[in-house]
Here is the input.
Amino acid sequence: MWWGGRGQSFNIAPQKAEPDMGLSGPKSVQRTGMLESRSCQLGSHLASGCLPGEQILAWAPGVRKGLEPELPGTLICTNLRVTFQPCGWQRSQETPLSSEYDFVLVNIGRLEAVSGLSRVQLLRPGSPLKFTPEEILIHGRDFRLLRVAFEAGGLEPQAFQVTMAIVRARAQSSQAQQYAGISLSKAGQSSGPRKPPIPLLETSEDWETERKKQGAGSWRVSPVNERFDVATSLPHYFWVPKRTLDSEVRRAFGHFHQGRGPRLSWHHPGGSDLLRCGGFYTASDPNKEDIRAVESMLQAGHSDVVLVDTVDELPSLTDVQLAHLKLRALCLPDSSAAEEKWLSALEGTRWLDYVRSCLRKASDISVLVTSRVRSVVLQERGDRDFNGLLSSLVQLLSAPEARTLLGFQSLVQREWVAAGHPFLTRLGVTGASEEAPVFLLFLDCVWQLLQQFPAEFEFSEFFLLALHDSARVPDTLTFLRDTPWERGKQSGQFNSYTQIYTAGYSQLPAGNSVNPQLSVWDWDLRYSSEQILQFHNPGYDPEHCPDSWLPRQQPNFMVSGPPSSVWLFSRGALTPLNQLCPWRDSPSLLAVSSRWLPRPAISSESLADQEWGLPSHWGACPLPPGLLLPGYLGPQIRLWRRCYLRGRPEVQGNSIPLDIQLLKL
Amino acid sequence: MFSLKPPRPTFRSYLLPPPQTDDKINSEPKIKKLEPVLLPGEIVVNEVNFVRKCIATDTSQYDLWGKLICSNFKISFITDDPMPLQKFHYRNLLLGEHDVPLTCIEQIVTVNDHKRKQKVLGPNQKLKFNPTELIIYCKDFRIVRFRFDESGPESAKKVCLAIAHYSQPTDLQLLFAFEYVGKKYHNSASNINGIPSGGGRGTGGGSVQNTPLFETYSDWDREMKRTGSSGWRVCSINEGYMISTCLPEYFVVPSSLADQDLKIFSHSFVGRRMPLWCWSHSNGSALVRMALIKDVLQQRKIDQRICNAITKSHPQRSDVYKSDLDKTLPNIQEIQAAFVKLKQLCVNEPFEETEEKWLSSLENTRWLEYVRAFLKHSAELVYILESRHLSVILQEEEGRDLSCIVASLVQVMLDPHFRTITGFQSLIQKEWVMAGYQFLDRCNHLKRSEKESPLFLLFLDATWQLLEQYPAAFEFSETYLAVLYDSTRISLFGTFLFNSPHQRVKQSTEFAISKNIQLGGEKGLKFPSVWDWSLQFTAKDRTLFHNPLYIGKSTPCIQNGSVKSFKRTKKSYSSTLRGMPAAFKNGVLGDQDLVPRRNSLILKAKPEPPQHPDGRKSGMERYLTEWFSKPADLHGVILPHLSGPRVKLWKLCYFRWLPEAQIKLGGFITAFHKLSLLADEVDVLSRTLRQPRAGPLEACDSGLDKSRMYFRASGPHDASGTPEFLSSSFPFSPVGNLCRRSISGTPLSKFLSGAKIWLSTETLVNED
Here is the structure.
């Protein structure tokens, strides 16, 4: 096991010689001498591991427990992270953050101090420590676990200090501060301006290139939001139908929730378009022209339009958050679930159930997009959570390009980062109540796909883990801001040593600018080249090579006049609609947001059956090339063990992931 | 043509719209040509024409037209219609695509939807209505459904009754294997050249030649030598089954026990089953299985004698550890109950209704819990044998049920030989077939006993768990395990047909006499052996049995006859997978010194795991902790992970016939495919290296027939994508079986999800 399996190994350089501390002798004899040597070493040793701007707040010697064998070392608390530094371990220059020993402060989910066998205190910000801890347990929000037993023998004050320091540092860190030092430590090494590894979609050229790549001939890049005056949560640029004027766009978008009107997400090479938009702003009173603009944007030149009620059948944000919390509790090493009750406990979290419903919905939508040339509009009130999740999943299922490493990163950049998914709020960095790890739910869905189609994805499980963990690392702004506007505002203006708070942007100190282009996709800033090599799935063997895909036929589908058929897709079935917009006479279509409910039994046929008239699950059905239909029945959804059970090494075991075996071959 | 009564207006048939008459006319000429493919000795009992096989519940669009035949071996549906869009079929040479062996039938339901009646057919029962529909539930979780709307009502009824009759025979000798073998013997008597292909060696199939059947003295002798056991001897007091009818003729006992003693002791054991040696560890500890001593007065004394004798056979005179399986493991009824629940979960209940509750329903079946219990207990015994150097006695009342599973699992974990195909087969011969596992009763071939229990499947499932956890440690693939399980329900092979070797000899001798077959010097008829895989699969299809991850490091340690050798294969393993993550784990290659940091079995972060007062227990935990903290030697001991998330459902086995559970172009098989290509390439290259003089092309050519991979690399840089026919069910294809997806809300779903196993009377009235 060498990677996140135990959340512990992939980031360390191999330890060739441990014994520079002279640990071979019996501990009791050497303790004092050892401590001295350790403290003098600390100066050089600890500082060497520090990033620019990082300060050591406290440290104490201790022994890491819970994993075999127990490792002696030092527990260090800085203003960025908690580190357990094993004796003699040299931090690799290539990996400023070790996924084994480093716990970034914002990643700490729960802190416990233990004394004796029975005294356990849950450490909350501001709560005083009631006893000198013998042991400290740090539960990462990324499911990792660090358990350190402090050394006895006169060092209790240090143990106390470091524990309190962690509590305080963690309390102060729960802000959206960026530690550019992480990326700086390596970015500084390379000279010259870096080119972003993928287009960050901050310029209109990026959008234009991407549009051409998709072959979306009847769309254009609209600069209407260049100054964020249409919507702050939207990117500078987006795609709108070619025939729609910017003034019409502006007009139409005003009638959507938070100004998030219909934009193209993805153009299917077969001709369909996948759109996303916010809910209709029901209070507005659009005039005829406005309605026409809205309708023509939704219709996007197709005669067949399907409105998808995104949240229907999907969990609410609260559900997702609750499930994630339960899942984390279940995956703790001391979780009370007995082995025989493991399955029902897992079911009780409902996490897998939510994964399942996302996959099912995405599968249905990809059938809608593939089976017929039409405009499929994902509509979610906020348009910033599940729209992104579904739209990305649909593209993964239908577009082989999206399954490549670059394609997937571009996809996330476009549908999540640029589209304004409120990462900061949802990942709970701000401590706001609207925390809901929708993005992590998405990564789980992707992992399920990777499991079900091991040969169809260019990226590996390791890559997904790295992305999963990066969500909790405050090094670049990618996951540290809620909107493109905030991200744009921030980047380039901060000093690497300064902590920047979300509140009060006005008082930003001017400083040396960091390359604003640095993003989470600059993997080489945090990962060694060997690790990045492992992002590739050795089993990648796509049946449909991205290049030799469908011909880019461009059917002449632009129709004038109203669409001939309008549907609402809900509960797995298509219902005809009289009109696209709710304002004229009927009440709002999506005014009542549906809650998460199981699909009614009547719609027993899957959408694929309805569309192709042949049960697709027979496996014999000729699916359109490139389309994957995932399994979403109860037994087909699995737990992402290597991610969630990293705190329980005994569950991981010493088996090797299959893709590594492939590598070996 | 037969007139079709229009359905009563009150009853809406959700099942199928009445077919067009044109179809009948079109298909008529075809049907006349349809002839069944019969095996020697197989006869057609009854048949009916103009039958539709339904493969979807809500539409007749894909129904197949053909003839339904009941023979004394199988039910066969013969059709010219191709399966819709099917591109691949893993063919069993004994069975056609639509055939079901009679021994695989679980339940037969006839329905008349005009009269709204249904009946579960038993043998020798009457049917008061003409069936419009026949639904067959198979033991392998398939459901097959036929409609008789256009067939002659009388002949349809006759076929249904014939199937019911022949699938539930009253006597063992009515099973098809007897007829088949009888025919073979007769044929060979008339054609002098033909020697009956028997249950033993000499048949052309590759693996059967190598698989010791443990029917002879020499097989046992060889096995003792292979394991390097001393202090044990092969004993032949049961020759001619003089002592016990449920023991093999030859078995291995402590050398210090004389035949005379054994004869006296044997009376005190249940079934006269005295201690049987199973296996010896290289440290001298032996694994022994034994029935209970029923004679209470003698119990202590005999027990003492046996234990002393086993101690004496141990080179270090170590103690004996006794494991009472009846007390520590679930009993056979519980296992059967769990299996029935599992079956209900996987087959009956439409997934839509259970999917949210899937995990807890699965848990409630307790099947995985039982699998875990057996793995756990076996792992504990591995510790006793391996680390504490004690011999182990498995004690069970009759010593022929749970002991079979535990004895086999212990050996699979300890001895890499049993992780090869030949080794695994010899293990099944040794610990199941010869040790008197009651296949006839436990598989319920005669459908009358209450003794049915899927212990053999449980063993295969537990083996699958090990295979899943250590994919490179086994020579065989999960396809092999699934096919092996299927073979228990083909009544052609003698291997899984009898309760004991004696029963085979006795019954087949009786049969031979009644049929006037000259047995000559043979003990009973020679039935075909399951291990002769060439009877069932082509050489190409048999390559799917091979695990690509195992290729390239196969069994160097077995040949020199000592188990000790698997300890010294470090050299060969360092080049294998296991060596690699050690160097690779820290993200940097090329450094073999690894931080001795591995995973522990000690789970609790706090408080410390309580120290067991019992020293052995903590010793056991220490052993496991230590073992799990090191990389596993795949040619040494392997131990199972037992935590909740690690024990899984064997999806290929239980879901392969469920169309709705199939993931097209997905599943593990796509990785398997890729692996196979790579393994094949490595194979070809290494062969090329070994033949330096031959040009690479010649080497490749000669290599082709030797290739052990189903998927082969066509060239050095084969870039062909995933074949389109791959799916998560591969190599099985669920198409053609009744699909359950779109049946919720229809009357059919009601009776698919009912009681007994299958039926409820809610919608349809039972006949009686």
Residues 204-491+524-543+566-592+604-652 of chain A form one domain. Chain A touches chain B through 108 residues (CB under 8 Å).
